[in-house]
């Protein structure tokens, strides 16, 4: 036997017993999105590296430290997607969606790849459920996206969540903000970490995202510098977003030091966090510069991405009552060669009648088959032995109380239907 193989560091096997949580999150996401008029999009898991270098930004952690990039066999520079927005925007442009009636409303669900430091809630392959609304610039749209994602978390059954919100201003106010920030940070240069000293010159907004303890006091004040230097348009826009949120009854917290780790954001940025633990379960914002940056027409846009693993973790720790995945309604048991052949026909008949049928045709003893039925949580069994083959009948047994009766083949379906109905009404 060879050396046993293990999954790469930072990845996970998501086993069948976990799937009820994944179904819960994915199905709820789909329901909310379709109801709100968003269409699903599936884009490639890998793209040209250049898309992320241009679209996410060379100075971001995602691209400078975390990207999985490689040359394929033809020498093309390829990268596993570290986030979903850049691919969706590329597709929007490439498929001419900017020529369709605007806004274009899209959602996705898929895995992202980042060379992150693996720890609780942080993986190298993780899933995001995302939403993007392209082609409309209006504060009500920002508020609507926030309201929809909060509705999603509420529908999941999660409590203790809040949305933190901030504005980093439009493109026109960016130079002034940058200058003011650089002035401010230069004055406090000595208290900044090495990363921030570097970021300061290239992209000072990113300093606000620093998690180093030593930078925190400077960063807290830097948030105020951004807000003080927003132009009137950006201030008015932000005020409107907050007013609409008030009107919609969505609770929020202002967080002046909130920025996103990606370069393309403008105006509103927001992040959904647990109130008590400060855990980030999703983040988003407006990105009016990205479509043009990637070669499309000047197009405003806003989006959000849910961190699926962290959301599932919360679903578990908050003890949300997650629905059971579909259980088979009926289990077919057989004993002997002739019975096995008859079982195949019975299974087919039940299946065509629309039941979820389970069986263990590879097993011999009735006892071991019933054990499988028990594990699956099935309450009703159709049992076929040699005697039933000859008498053209089956035994129908209620697995919860053991009550059983012999039924002629012709009445099998009708009896199964009646028994299941009785069970439901009990
Ligand atoms: P962080 O500051 O925690 O690294 P980020 O700013 O890199 O987060 P975003 O790019 O905004 O995160 O992604 C949105 C959401 O995706 C986060 O709120 C989080 O729930 C989730 N997420 C990000 N990175 C990871 C990861 N490595 N593993 C699992 N989930 C992640
Ligand atoms: Mg990160």
Description:
The protein is of the alpha+beta class and 426 residues long. The protein has helices at residues 19-35, 49-55, 61-64, 85-94, 139-156, 174-187, 194-202, 216-228, 232-248, 290-293, 308-317, 337-352, 366-376, 386-390, 412-425, and strands at residues 39-40, 46-48, 69-71, 77-80, 104-113, 125-134, 161-167, 252-254, 266-274, 280-286, 301-307, 330-334, 357-359, 380-384, 393-398, 404-408. 40% of the residues lie in helices and 21% in strands. Helix 1 packs antiparallel against helix 5, helix 5 packs parallel to helix 9 (232-248) and helix 6 (174-187) runs antiparallel to helix 8. The protein starts with 18 loop residues before the first helix and ends with a helix. The strands form 3 sheets. The protein has an 8-stranded mixed sheet. The chain has a 5-stranded mixed sheet with strand order 13-12-14-15-16, with helices on both faces. The protein has 15 helices and 16 strands. The protein has 2 domains: 16-173 and 230-317, BirA Bifunctional Protein, domain 2 (2-Layer Sandwich), CATH 3.30.930.10; 330-425, Anticodon-binding domain (Rossmann fold). The structure holds adenosine-5'-triphosphate (ATP) and magnesium ion (MG). Residues 83, 114, 116, 121-123, 126, 128, 260-261, 280-283, 305, 307, 309-310 line the site of adenosine-5'-triphosphate. Residues 25-323 form the Aminoacyl-transfer RNA synthetases class-II family profile domain. Keywords: Aminoacyl-tRNA synthetase, ATP-binding, Cytoplasm, Ligase, Nucleotide-binding, Protein biosynthesis.
